[in-house]
């Protein structure tokens, strides 16, 4: 593990700082919207429109400048925070959606390219574990710090601080990143992405389930995130340790499907159980079981895609496009279920996606 951290040191530190800001401020946006009168289905639509914006924007971007796009990405992150400083009206809602779509396109595509540009098939599992799980320790204190700022200073101070830090980080990185331009024609990169399109659509849906769907559903149980944050932080540390062990072994054996089938079977079961539980204590336990399985499986399912194609910038552009296509579809269905209060069918939908995912991997890639 030490050699992996040494190779990824600067990129991992960057990831930690970036994710800390997200856990500090962005994780409270659904709670902010609920407290300002938005129904839960409207909050789901909020994220649907954000992903739809990325889907509409990506086909027109055929030249990527890494340094400039990372800066644009952080300007968009600052824009999301600043948009909420002006209240929770429709204008703020739409501005957040526009800037949020920009973060998916301008930040995450070049960042993932830079993070994984030294990754090989032999290291993709461990590198994915660093990417997805190395920030688990931040969850111990970042949400609690954000909650404390809201309680004692208010949302304006929290969002204003986050916007300032995003701007400072973007300005710092702008002068340290290489001046590189990449031609990534949309039709060509989509054609090269053959075999991963449907897989990535499902992957995108599953990625948004814990943070968006489950996070918004949790607002039915919790008014604040403090107590919930303690529990999930503890589980995050355990998940990180388990994920490192499993992904390291899968790198050596190159037998990721052997892990994916049982993991996704139990994960599908854990998903459909969540809405059935009525007691808050048992609900937290059920969510904890899912969180454990999700954190273990995320690096593995990411590594499967990384093993299948050359990880150039075109790969990340096509991947981001299809991730968001999947998110738009399932968020749209989820918004309808939220509107009618039909939560169990929504969880069954995500459970089925988790169940068919490893079979799709075997059919498409094996």
Estimated radius of gyration:
19 Å
As laid out across the biggest beta sheet, the strand order is: 1-2
Q: What is the strand tally?
A: 2
Helix content: over 70%
For the terminal residues, how far apart are their CA atoms?
Answer: 28 Å
Per DSSP, the total helix count is 15
Query: Would you list the SSEs in sequence order as H and E?
Result: HHHEHHHHHEHHHHHHH
The oligomeric state is single chain
Low-confidence sequence ranges: 1-6
Task: Summarize the SSE layout with pairings.
Layout: H1 2-24, H2 29-35, H3 40-57, E1 63-65, H4 66-85, H5 90-115, H6 124-133, H7 142-152, H8 155-174, E2 181-183, H9 186-192, H10 197-217, H11 226-253, H12 256-273, H13 280-308, H14 313-340, H15 343-365
Antiparallel strand pairs: 1-2
Helix pairs in contact: 1-6, 1-7, 1-8, 3-5, 3-10, 3-14, 4-5, 4-8, 5-14, 6-11, 6-13, 7-8, 9-14, 10-13, 10-14, 10-15, 11-13, 12-13, 12-15, 14-15
